[in-house]
Amino acid sequence: MRKRCTDNCPGIPERGLTTQTFERSGSPVRVTIRQIPAAVCPVCHEAYIDRETGRQIDLLLEPFHGKHKQVPPLPPAEVAIDFQEAVAALKAA
Ligand SMILES: [Zn+2]
Predict the structure, then answer these.
(1) Rounded to whole angstroms, how far apart are CA atoms 57 and 42?
(2) 51-92 per-position pLDDT tens digit
(3) Distance of CA 35 from the midpoint of ligand 1 (Å)
(4) What spacing in Å lies between the alpha carbon of 45 and ligand 1's midpoint?
(5) Alpha helices in the chain (DSSP H)
(6) Residue 17 Cα to ligand 1 middle (Å)
(7) What is the Å distance from ligand 1's center to 34 Cα?
(8) CA–CA separation, 21 and 47 (whole Å)
(9) Is residue 9 assigned to a domain?
(10) Whole-number mean pLDDT of the chain?
């Protein structure tokens, strides 16, 4: 875990949860993922997500945003995913 947020911010990120919304150009689907484990800065609220969590986020986004240059043909939609539940479901599958 990092010691300090950025050179411009004195905050020290703490373990917490964050919500992020992901959009991809070419895709009409907006995906909001809640309860993502992250180190969150108490001063500026910047969230730092580790590599493994980022990989899981990519897996969750793939059905909606596709992979590489391919975007799946989907109708415009807003999707909300609970990170913890979704990762548990992926592991069970
Ligand atoms: Zn900060």
Answers:
(1) 23
(2) 999 999 999 999 999 988 889 999 999 999 999 999 999 888
(3) 19
(4) 6
(5) 51-65, 83-92
(6) 15
(7) 20
(8) 13
(9) no
(10) 93
Whether 12 and 3 have beta carbons less than 8 Å apart is answered as yes
Give 79 Cα–ligand 1 centroid separation in angstroms: 28
Domain-embedded: residue 7: no
Amino acid at 78: E
Based on the number of CB atoms within 10 Å of its own CB, is 60 exposed (0-12), middle (13-18) or buried (19 or more)? buried
Measured in Å, residue 14 CA sits from the centre of ligand 1 at 10
CATH number at residue 48: 3.10.20
Distance CA 6, CA 12 (A): 9
Structure tokens at 67: 């992979």
Domain with 67, as residue range(s), is 14-87
